[in-house]
Amino acid sequence: MRSGSETASTPTSTVSDPHLSMIRQVYPRTPNWCEECLRLGTEWVHLRLCLTCGHVGCCDSSPLRHARAHAHSAGHPIVRSFEPGESWRWCYVDEQYV
Ligand SMILES: [Zn+2]
Ligand SMILES: [Zn+2]
Ligand SMILES: [Zn+2]
Predict the structure, then answer these.
(1) What's the confidence (pLDDT) of residue 8?
(2) Span from the CA of 18 to the centroid of ligand 1 (angstroms)
(3) Exposed/middle/buried for 35, CB within 10 Å: 0-12, 13-18, 19+?
């Protein structure tokens, strides 16, 4: 049982996604860049933080979409926006804000 919060400021929804149970206390592995883009020397648009392991990857607007690739390859579907001032979470399996 969890009680809802009444202080939603960003596009959040009230869905109870089953993947929310995979969220851990994580620390960003690469605090300022996409881990794969850093290695490849490629560019990204926005960053997403994996809430299961702390992987930082680039968003779907980026050419290589490493956050999505990580979600599927590692089986970590829940990410949080890693952009300043944004706190929404996204599930790559259900394709929805969670
Ligand atoms: Zn989900
Ligand atoms: Zn990337
Ligand atoms: Zn992960």
Answers:
(1) 47
(2) 6
(3) buried
